[in-house]
Fold:
Amino acid sequence: MKFNKYQWTLLFITLLTSAGYLLSGCAVANGAQETTKIYQVGLLSVVDTLNPAFDGFKATMTDLGYKEGENISYDFQAASSSTDTEKIEQIAEKFVADKVDLIVTTTNGAAIAAKAATADTHIPVVFMVVFAPIEAGIADNVRQPGGNVTGVHVPLEDVAKQLEFLLQMAPHVKRVWIPFNPKYITGQLAFIKLQPVASALGVELVEGHFDNPEAVAVNLESRGKIDDIGFEAILLMPEVISGQLADWKAISTFATEHHMPIAANSVVQVRDGGLFSYTFDSVDIGKQAAFLADKILRGTEAGTIPLFPIESHLIINYKAAQSLGLKVGDGLLAQATEIIR
Amino acid sequence: MLAQFTSKKSQRSTSLAAVLATTFVVLVVLALVLASSFQIVLNFQAQEALEKSEQKNIALASAQQVSNFLEQIFTALEAAARVNNPFAETAEDQKLLLQKLLGLEPALREVTLLDDKGKMITQLSQLTTLTTADSANQATSVLFIQASQGQRYISSVHFDPTTNEPLVTIAIPIKNLFGDFEGVLAAKVNLKFMWDLVGSLQVGIDGLAYVVDEQGNLLALRDTLRVLRGENLSNLPEVAAFINRENTNPGLDEINPFVSTGINGNAVLATYYPLGTPNWAVVVEVPVEEAYQTPVTSLLLSLGIVLVVAVLAGFAGVYLARRVVAPLRLLTETATRIAGGEIELSAPVEGPTETSLLARAFNSMTTQLKELIGSLEQRVNDRTRRLETAATLGKRMSSILNLEELLVEVVNQIKDNFGYYHAHIYLLDAQQEKLVVAEGTGQAGAEMKAKEHSIPLNAPTSLVARAVRTGQIVKVDNVREAPDWLPNPLLPETRSEMAMPIILEGQIVGVLDVQDDEIAGLDDTDANLLLILASQVAVAIRNAQLFTEVEQALSTARITQERYLEQGWTKVKSLKRGAEYLHQRSDATRLEAGVIAALEQESQRQNQIKVVHSNGAVGQPDAAVIAPINLQNQRIGTIQLHKTAQVREWNERELALVEAVINQVAQTAETLRLFDETREQASREQTIREITDKLRSAPTLKRLVEIATEELRKRLSATHAKLELGFEVEGTNGTS
Structure:
């Protein structure tokens, strides 16, 4: 079969159109292919009781499509203590030197260190478990934190509610021991929030100023040797002196020995003998932080992403209350999101 | 030019197969496009309506879920107030009730119990209650007034200064069993707990829903960070449509989704549905590409089908066109080969009925064409032979200058070469009154010529006379039926006749008449042939006439010349200016003068050189050559040469020499005579010129007369001369 000029033209047009369709299809297919980039994320841990936040973060990141080893890589670095600011800063600077794509931190101290280390870079910082970020100088405001930081923050006012719950469960308490490091801003601010409530409720706040956890243990040991310990309950604020599990152990052991309730400040503590905690869920914080990180990795400036508030939940260790001979009312039990029996 | 145009036109011409295939494809594609267009439009409209309807239903369902969120809180407050009348309980019970409410509904941030005067009885908060002392008395607040009237209250949205979370305050009236107003149960609701609800709303695949208040503030969105940022979306057309709606609670039919800019800046199909109370709206949007995916897919599918069918139609069109055209191509090829000379070919009869019929018609036409070509070739050959004959005849006629001989040749050649029954030529007489037979073929022609057969021009029954009168060819296919035909008994077989006027320089000089023994035996070809021959005859006649005239002129000139020569030599003779020379060899026998004179007379009688033998007398020359000396047939002298010494014959060479010499003598003598004549003429003219010069020098008339008279006297040797000018008037004496 021999084609003439017109038949060739017809065939040419047909093939051209088909090729156009095929090419457009290929173009769409090619467009769907993106260059696979492996994001380097530095995880800066300061308080091991908050490490579940990193677990929540990584799990949610996986749900959002960031598969570890495929398109994201985590560098988990932990400082031994919240007071070890030098170590915290070293870790932050290491992340900067490694030119990670993102730094995720817990606690105010780590957030401050990370912000300082990345000040002259474009490395974004997502913080978790930060109290009073405005007052701490970490963010400019809630709607637009500014700079290269954003994160999940916890209302510091919850510490006052913590004192109310303590007195509702242990109305006999007149003196509450508040150990904290006065040099750590979170402790300062939290204590300020506590004072008017304590005054209104007619309870004395016994301040325990410590520079390090070892000093707490020494103080408790010495207190245990005298008849009047000086307080009937312990309230742990969101600060650094009691954050590590080892530090908590010293306090909880002392409280157990002296049949004394502890208003804990973490889920770990309440599960380990604390009377109750009114605080956030670390895993939930990690989950919310993951959403922020995802936005950042997709191109949004960190400083333009509003800070995300996290809710506190009441967890009551009913078993501890019974061992202490305390009666927890139905109203409190109704408000609790979890009751440990 | 016509050839170029035809060539260009043929270059631009399109093959039938291409035209058929293209037409087929165009028609199929056109039909498909038209049909598909209607279907596509209808499908598109149906799909669009379906998509919009679905989106409105989603918006309605979303609005109901958001309403249920608030309704659930209202219901919880109302149930708590109804089951346990707070004012019938103790303070502890009241506190317990509020604690249970806070525990039951996490969205409640704070719960407050007011009495019937608006005074706060109890307040419980997720936060510390110590900071809300300013809400101790709500007697004048809108919240209390509206609740005291038995209505639910819901405030506008405000944002927590610390967390920027949206909050709203709600309140319900508390009544006893008798329905009496006893107080108000108010609560602050954290709308953050609505976020999960709104975020979980499924709107298509990539669609989303969000909640805005009456000012366009974003209250809930899957991307909660945008809510926390406190965005106001009143600039979005769909939100603006909600804010600026005329009907506060429009029905589902009054809401029409439209293409707009979505909350993410992309093109979306958007709609809103107001909750009524509170004055919020759920806005639902679906990306345009998703909303119109089905109609667009349908459109692309239809286009793909059109394309595929067009391609198939193209190939089908080409196949069908080639099938239809193939027999035509065979036919064309056959026609081309026939045109190239293969006239014996015939087209194959195959293919569809129409092309088979065409092939049969073509073969029939080819057969007829072959016959026609054969006939034409015969006619062309005949015509060519006739033209060649006519040309040959014309050439021959041009070489014949004798008119009579010419006419004989013409009629015979015409009759013999063209197969006519008879041919003859009439010429007009000098009086231009009748036609006289100049020449004719055969016995009939000879007899008519001998009888000087003639026909008057005004003869009514003569075809040749009519031809002369009209100046036009007269052609009669059947002479027996022609009224003006006069039968000639010498030509009994004549059936058709053609008379062609012979026209010379616009004048008819005769008629060329041919006759055939068949009816209609003479056609237009004969007429054209006779026209050519008549023209050639006319020219030949003219040539013959001119030749005769020239001959006559030459004869006259020759006679005049001869007379001139005769006069010239007569004058020479009379003036005795002739010359004679006689030579007799001394050793030879002298001839008698009488012999010489006799031979001279004899030679004058002869016209050519001649050898004259002696008569045997003693002393007579044995042989003498005598010859006249002629100049242009004019005898100007004689010569005689004798041989007497011994018997000797004049050979041819000697005679030729003699003849040549005497010719030269004649020529030279004429030259000398002309020279003498010329010299004499010149002398005379010289004399006249000299006398004239002298006459012109005469100063007076008397002197003039004297010079003239004296000169003439001297030169003419006159003994007496008198010249007189003027005549004396009577009484007057002249001068001498």
